[in-house]
Design goal:
The complex is a heterodimer of chains A (634) and B (292). Helix content of chain A is 59%, strand content 11%. Chain A has 634 residues and is an alpha/beta fold. In chain A, strands 10-11-12-7-13-14 form a 6-stranded mixed beta sheet, with helices on both faces. In chain A, strands 6-5-8-9 form a 4-stranded antiparallel beta sheet, covered by helices on one side. Chain A has a two-stranded antiparallel ribbon with strand order 1-2. In chain A, strand 8 and strand 9 form a beta hairpin. The longest helix of chain A is centred in the first third of the chain and has 28 residues, at 24-51. Chain B contains 11 helices and 2 strands, in the order ααααββααααααα. In chain B, helix 3 packs antiparallel against helix 4 (98-118) and helix 5 runs antiparallel to helix 8 (189-211). Chain B is globular. The chains are: A alpha/beta (634), B mainly alpha (292). Chains A and B meet through helix 5, helix 6, helix 12 and helix 14 of A and helix 3, helix 4, helix 9 and helix 11 of B.
């Protein structure tokens, strides 16, 4: 290992130790400190009453902070956790505000119930808008969300009545003032609103915390990194994103009801404004997208800025705080894309550890934890269950007359290929021969123009990638695609979760797979900090964790230095011993001839040769295509 | 029938301008796979430029592109080079979704700066053409809007020629299709991005010139147009230039026809219905190419 690599690794190890799990007494201290903060925040209304004569203004500012923290945390469920930036959440907010208000005005339904109805309606609408987008990638959802909110706003502004119900268009709805009436979600004293908002905020934070530690949370974090890789592990990314969207829509709409009850006056122009949508985004970005508490920090910083500018410039210059918001958003994206949550968390954990050293018996516990990690076992009795022991010799994968074109270019033409259970088949051919296209066709990333793919007797053609993986086909990628923001262990956990279900169990089982590929010592390092060889091993572990019967390896030795090769080759042999059938793309002929039983040579999308490694490599045609002339191979 | 035609013609006339703005979005999206949220801000900046040129020098709005297009091109070029390119360099492997957030911040800051400096007044430019109309078979046609549609058409055609007939245009398209491959062919992808951003910004100079004679100038004017442009882009197809044109005209005509027959709210509802149907039936948009 070169010195430079060592330096890099040590950096990650330091970072890792800081972020590592707390010991038991440290956890207790952390919970006590966190609990004290919550209690203090909850007691603010009592405290301000003692200190200030007229505290209404201050309470109101605090309510806005809680309110925006809440909204931003609700946005964060889809925007941050899943990395799907909605810029139309004000539309969902408006749905919540209007549903509960219309129900209370026209049907006398208490807003407490209307709040739940609005939440369900918004979740349904959000799901409806999100569903078609989630099959596509990235920016599309952002555009659709903006367009949706905009149409909803303009539509409401222009609508006076719907089926005889007064919507009142751009003039908005004025809710009847009922005085102090808890059953109708109305209070004269703002302190009640403060408590309600704080409760809602704690609820949405708890949901975020729960999601983050759940199976869904791991899926979403992986999706944020690389959706295609997620699908290759038997997880339906669209479904995970949809679930996050339903939750996010539900809670955003509840915020809308609160807004309506707090102000008692809603207009489409205000409740569905782009400003609201954007503020939810900015607070989460500044605080830290995808973190549980980030939105709170964002709101704590940004809402007071708006209040201060309003106090200084009054109503005459309304947009001053938005100039600051915009500039801050740019600065954060450019210079601190992770947001400030990390700094705060490290500061908090640092003080917890500092306290623990003074109070508790931390060293002993730490030593115990260290002993635990070193006693990790190698897998016993094989990695894969007996059900996968194949009927050797039976055809497992059959491609029949498979064709796929890209516009005018041929990807694969009339390819017929059979892989028997227990076999190791090498797919060779120069660049552009169509090898990776074959993999993409088998795994459902591409659909064939013609032909058929059968696996273990069933038809794979036109199935989704995640379904194909669940049927027993796993793959690695030519250019490795680990989830870089997750640790090695978490990478494997993502692959295990569809089958194992429980996070704690997946965490434990991941160790077996990491041990199998020789990465136990790197389990808690972020995948971003792994070397290329380690990333390849990690991808192998991840693919194996889905318990495939057939594993497709796309240039597993590509970009790996000479010294690491024997280890990888041994690993491939080991995988084979586990009963996994292998189809591998390989440029290194020395590797492929030692590993494979049979070679298939592709050229310009067609199979031109098939046979034993010796026969194929010795064939003059192969030599001609690979090196351009006879006799030059050795 | 008369009403229908009147609505359709009115819609087509404004639809051309919509299309031009959506085209600006799609040039950037088609090339870089990112959304420039500040597109409307660039339009707003263009409109203020046109306004102040007219107030201070008396330059007719229709001549203003001579000044505004190079200025906005430069502005767009610099935005990409200074702000967006670093994100591409950082998130090389992925579609940098953060560009959307960055340009969102830019739009927010610039729009509210404009509000600070120019106040929330509705400014208008009174030209000799402003109120002029003529009748064809009983249908009233507004002259400045007609000029707007024609100019939009000519600009679209010029862009088409640029993208299909010039080396730089082909380089832009090639980079949009496969950035890695384009780079291997010796195309400087970051320069192409600068140009695409500049072009899309420069186009807003033309849109501003045709809008100002019949539309008010206001710091929030860009946002109202860009939101419509987002709907158009989703309908027509993200990154598709013919899609932007078609989508713009469709939205214009629906607004015109349904708005005239029933009411403006109904037009929004029809639009929304169409939007949802397209989303489910052809999520890539009418003329878009589905990418995974």
């Amino acid at each position: 290992m070169s010195p430079s690599v060592k330096i890099r690794n040590s950096k990650f190890e330091i970072r890792n130790r800081d972020a590592g799990p707390l010991s038991r007494p440290e956890q207790v201290i952390a919970w006590i400190l966190g609990g004290l903060v919550v209690v203090a925040v909850a007691l603010v209304p009592v405290a301000t009453r003692w200190v200030l004569v007229d505290d209404n203004y201050w309470i109101q500012v605090l309510i806005w902070i809680l309110f925006f923290a809440y909204l931003s945390a609700a946005w964060n469920l889809i925007g941050g956790f899943a990395g799907q930036y909605s810029i139309g959440h004000a539309g969902l907010l408006g749905i919540g505000a209007y549903t509960s208000s219309l129900l209370s005005i026209n049907a006398g339904l208490s807003p407490w119930l209307g709040m739940a109805v609005g939440g369900l309606v918004a979740a349904a609408v959000g799901g409806l808008i999100g569903y078609p987008c989630f099959r596509l990638r990235g920016a599309f959802f952002s555009l659709v969300s903006i367009a949706f909110a905009e149409m909803l706003r303009v539509g409401t502004e222009l609508t006076d009545t719907v089926f005889g119900i007064e919507v009142n268009g751009v003039r908005g709805l004025l809710l009847p003032v009922l005085g102090h009436n808890p059953a109708a979600f109305q209070f004269v004293d703002k302190r009640y609103y403060y408590s309600v908002m704080l409760g809602l905020l704690l609820l949405v934070l708890a949901v975020g915390w729960g999601v983050k530690r759940s199976r869904l949370g791991y899926y979403l974090a992986a999706i944020r990194d690389d959706e295609e890789a997620v699908a290759s592990l038997g997880i339906n990314p669209a479904r995970a994103k949809l679930l996050a969207m339903l939750l996010s829509g539900f809670f955003t709409a509840i915020g809308g009801t609160f807004y309506a009850q707090f102000i008692l006056f809603i207009t489409p122009t205000r409740t569905m404004s782009l400003d609201f949508s954007v503020q939810m985004v900015i607070m989460a970005v500044l605080g830290g997208m995808g973190t549980v508490l980030g939105p709170v920090y964002g709101a704590v910083i940004l809402v007071p800025i708006a209040e201060v500018t309003r106090a200084v410039w009054g109503g005459s210059l309304q947009g001053v705080h938005l100039i600051v918001y915009g500039a801050l958003l740019m600065a954060v994206i450019l210079y601190c894309p992770q947001g400030i949550e990390g700094w705060i968390r490290r500061g908090f954990l640092g003080s917890v550890r500092w306290l623990a050293v003074r109070i508790g018996p931390a060293p002993a516990v730490l030593a115990e934890a260290a002993a635990h990690t070193s006693s990790m076992l190698l897998p016993e009795g094989g990695l894969l269950p007996a059900r996968l022991a194949p009927g050797n010799g039976q055809p497992l994968l059959v491609l029949r007359k498979l064709s796929r074109r890209f516009g005018g270019a041929i990807g694969v033409r009339d390819l017929t290929l059979e892989v028997k259970a227990g076999e190791v088949v090498g797919l060779i051919g120069p660049n552009g021969a169509g090898k990776t296209t074959v993999f993409n066709l088998i795994t459902g990333v591409l659909t064939p123009d013609a032909g058929e793919i059968r696996f273990a007797g069933s038809d794979l053609t036109r199935l989704r990638p995640d379904t194909i993986n669940r049927m027993g086909v796993a793959r690695t990628f030519q250019i490795v695609r680990p989830f870089v923001q997750l640790t090695a262990r978490e990478n494997v956990m993502v692959a295990l979760l569809p089958r194992v279900g429980r996070v704690a169990e997946a965490r434990k089982e991941a160790e077996r797979y990491l041990a199998f590929v020789g990465l136990s010592h790197r389990a808690d390092v972020l995948a971003d900090g792994l070397s290329t060889g380690e990333r390849k091993r990690l991808e192998l572990a991840r693919a194996l964790a889905t318990r495939p019967r057939l594993l497709l390896l796309d240039e597993v030795t590509g970009g790996v230095d000479q010294r690491s090769l024997p280890g990888l080759v041994a690993l491939i042999h080991q995988i084979r011993k586990e009963g996994v059938t292998l189809l591998l793309i390989e440029h290194n002929l020395r590797v492929v001839t030692t590993v494979a039983d049979r070679l298939v040579m592709l050229h310009l999308g067609e199979k031109i040769l098939e046979g034993t490694p010796e026969a194929v490599v010795g064939d003059p045609q192969v030599v001609e295509i690979y090196v351009g002339g006879p006799g030059a191979l050795r | 029938m008369q009403t229908f035609l009147q609505g359709a013609v009115g819609g087509l006339l404004i639809g051309g301008t919509y299309a031009l703005i959506a085209l600006g979005l799609n040039i950037v999206f088609g090339t870089m796979r990112v959304i420039n949220f500040a597109q409307g801000t660039l339009l707003m900046a263009g409109m203020f430029l046109v306004y102040w040129l007219w107030v201070l020098t008396g330059l007719h709005p229709y001549l203003s592109p001579l000044v505004t297009v190079p200025l906005l091109f430069g502005f767009g070029y610099v935005i990409q080079k200074a702000l967006v390119a670093p994100l591409f360099a950082r998130e090389r492997a992925r579609e940098p979704m953060s560009v959307l957030l960055l340009t969102l911040g830019l739009a927010l800051a610039l729009e509210n700066l404009a509000l600070l400096f120019f106040a929330a007044d509705f400014k208008t430019v009174q030209t000799d053409l402003a109120m002029r109309t003529f009748k064809v078979g009983g249908i009233i046609v507004s002259v400045p809007r007609l000029i707007g549609l024609l100019t939009a058409g000519i600009s679209g055609a010029a862009l088409y020629l640029f993208f299909t007939r010039t080396d730089l245009g082909r380089a832009v398209r090639a980079t949009g299709q496969d950035r890695e491959a384009a780079r291997l062919m010796g195309i400087d992808d970051f320069r192409v991005y600068n140009v695409a951003f500049g072009l899309s910004a420069g186009l807003m100079g033309i849109a501003a010139a045709i809008l100002v004679p019949f539309y008010y100038v206001h710091p929030a004017v860009g946002t109202s147009f860009i939101l419509k442009a987002f709907v158009i882009v989703v309908l027509g197809g993200m990154g598709s230039m013919p899609g932007a044109a078609l989508g713009g005209l469709i939205v214009g005509v629906i607004e015109g026809v349904v708005g005239l027959y029933v009411q403006a709210a109904a037009a929004q509802i029809v639009l929304f219905g169409l939007f949802v149907v397209i989303l489910f039936v052809r999520p890539a948009g009418l003329l878009g190419v589905e990418r995974r």
